[in-house]
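Support request from a user on the community tier.

User writes: "When I paste my structure tokens into the form, the page sometimes reloads and wipes my input. The last time it worked, I copied everything first. Here is what I submitted, just in case something in the input itself triggers the reload:"
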């Protein structure tokens, strides 16, 4: 059991000689590199940067990108069973608009991808679709995560407004979150 108030008192030490600028990349173990690379490219739209053959890494390895960085995700063919999600809970991918979350949700459903959740979680208030890759890794595509300013202020819990569907999240936005769908084909959700 943890003490929430004690956790909330944790702070970045003064004088720390470095500052992490962003989460760089995630490397996942998969059962079949080719099958998983196909999912990440054809279903999620990642681009392939490089491939290691089995002689370099047992099971092979692929490097995939979603922006100019060489890779945001890499896949290593060393998994023998489906992922249990006990060490890594999930990996989240940000998109630029709410409409993209809605279109991603519809795209995933049409492709037969297992969807675990769609709507708005609590802390952070992002609107998201959560789903599984072929190896049972939990993934999320999201938009609209709260931003924390230099004052460190975060939205209080009484303003979180969890929603268990995209429609509910769009119909009842949190303060400051514009859930207007600008794409006419998505209106009426």
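"...and here is what came back when it finally went through:"
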């Amino acid at each position: 059991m943890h003490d929430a108030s004690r956790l909330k008192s944790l702070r970045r030490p003064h004088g720390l000689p470095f500052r992490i600028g962003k989460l760089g990349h995630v490397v996942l173990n998969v059962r079949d590199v080719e099958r998983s690379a196909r999912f990440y490219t054809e279903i999620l739209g990642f681009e392939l940067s490089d491939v290691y053959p089995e002689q370099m890494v047992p099971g092979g390895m692929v490097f995939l990108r979603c922006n100019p960085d060489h890779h945001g995700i890499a896949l290593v063919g060393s998994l023998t069973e489906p992922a249990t999600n006990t060490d890594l809970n999930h990996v989240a991918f940000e998109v630029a608009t709410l409409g993209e979350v809605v279109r991603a949700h519809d795209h995933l459903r049409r492709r037969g991808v297992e969807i675990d959740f769609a709507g708005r979680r609590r802390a952070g208030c992002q609107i998201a679709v959560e789903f599984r890759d072929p190896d049972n890794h939990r993934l999320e595509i999201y938009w609209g995560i709260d931003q924390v300013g230099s004052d460190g202020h975060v939205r209080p819990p009484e303003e979180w407004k969890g929603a268990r569907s995209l429609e509910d999240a769009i119909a009842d936005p949190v303060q400051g979150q514009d859930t207007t769908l600008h794409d006419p084909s998505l209106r009426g959700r």
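Agent notes: The reload is a front-end session timeout and is unrelated to the input. The first strand starts at residue 26 and ends at 29. The mean pLDDT is 94. Escalated to web team.
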